[in-house]
Amino acid sequence: MFGKKNSDRQVLIDMTNKQKRYEALVQVYHKELYRFAYWLCQDHSVADDLVQETFLRAWKSLDSLLDQYAAKAWLITILRRENARRFERKQFDYSDVEQDHLADDHSFTLEQTMEQTMIQRQIQALPEEYREPLLLQVVMGFSGDEIATILDLNKNTVMTRLFRARSQLKDALTSPIEQHRGVK
Question: Is the pTM of this model over 0.85?
């Protein structure tokens, strides 16, 4: 009987430790995951759903995370898979009416807003093979080695894709303004 009490206590301790690890992951990485999710889908509610599903899957398999230093890459991998699953599911558009948008609390000048929009559009226009490594580096702050691990690629391949992504982005952003407007 005494042995059962000790095993019950150990289970409670293990559960408490798991919950603390999980809460720490959420607190540290939630904003970064949301930012990356938003860059992937360009929709706030979808990004929220992706992050929520990512953390749900992370909770379920938290015991498989053996190296705490790999947590960020592990969570990004889960988020990328969740985003891929989104395209496997059927989605129905229930409304043709434009939804109301919340006002942005930040006040940018018109020029800053236009510049930011142009950069975002050019990044989104990059082929996915270049866009994804660039976002992982610029938005998430991963190194070339970490990106190679996340995308399951050779580091040299990642570095080449990053170089080409930056080159294409630079060319697109330094081209004459008429090209951005569609004027030939």
Answer: no
CA distances from 88 to 1, 10, 81, 82 (A): 51, 41, 11, 10
pLDDT in tens, 7-59: 777 777 777 888 888 898 889 999 999 999 998 888 999 999 999 999 999 98
- The parts of the chain modelled with pLDDT lower than 70 are 1-6, 89-108, 176-184
